[in-house]
């Protein structure tokens, strides 16, 4: 039922300004995963980048590997990015999503928590950590994270839908219906909210 986020945008937003000079650096911020991997590999092997730019290159390659479903490589590269820059929020988020995709929820929660400690104003990371809590059966912690995401971004349809799912897991169906409706008011095309509302017998 959950939808993961905006971490792709976060990673690109961090990476693009730092790597936009040489041909290889331009490839390293390509939207094509294969081109990105080739470009970032060349940047990493060049030996001329600063530690912060090397971290960006590793994190961008991590993102490309994750998009290709190569999660172990994605986790390894995000870890390399963190070794070059321990304040690289995007790398923690990207590694957290890769851990989440492998159903390694404690590791995902740890990385999302580190990202939140570094950047506490990003609603998407609270939403992500909420997903990891929810899928590991910690529904109250998930609800708290989705609620905080909604404090930061009141029109966050996915957070409403995800919180509704957590309420549904707790059999708090009235709360779930209310949140599914709120999600659909913001985004009438949000399929998980539409399916949840239908499942509970609610009307938009």
What report would you give on this structure?
This protein is mostly helical. Helices cover 75% and strands 0% of the residues. The longest helix is centred in the first third of the chain and has 17 residues, at 51-67. The two termini are 18 Å apart.
**Helical residue percent?**
over 70%
Order of helices and strands: HHHHHHHHHHHH
Overall shape: elongated
Number of strands: 0
Average pLDDT works out at 89
Radius of gyration: 18 Å
**Number of helices, counting only DSSP H or I runs of 4 residues or more:** 12
Describe the main β-sheet briefly: none
Separation of termini?
A: 18 Å
Query: Which band does the percent of strand residues land in?
Result: under 5%
Briefly note the structural class of the backbone: mainly alpha
Q: Give start-end ranges of low-pLDDT stretches.
A: 1-20
Set out the fold topology.
Layout lengths: L6 H12 L4 H6 L4 H14 L4 H17 L3 H14 L4 H13 L3 H14 L4 H13 L3 H14 L4 H13 L3 H14 L4 H9 L5
Characterize this entry briefly.
The chain has helices at 7-18, 23-28, 33-46, 51-67, 71-84, 89-101, 105-118, 123-135, 139-152, 157-169, 173-186, 191-199. 75% of the residues lie in helices and 0% in strands.
Q: What characteristics describe this protein?
A:
204 residues, 75% helix, 0% strand, mainly alpha, 12 helices
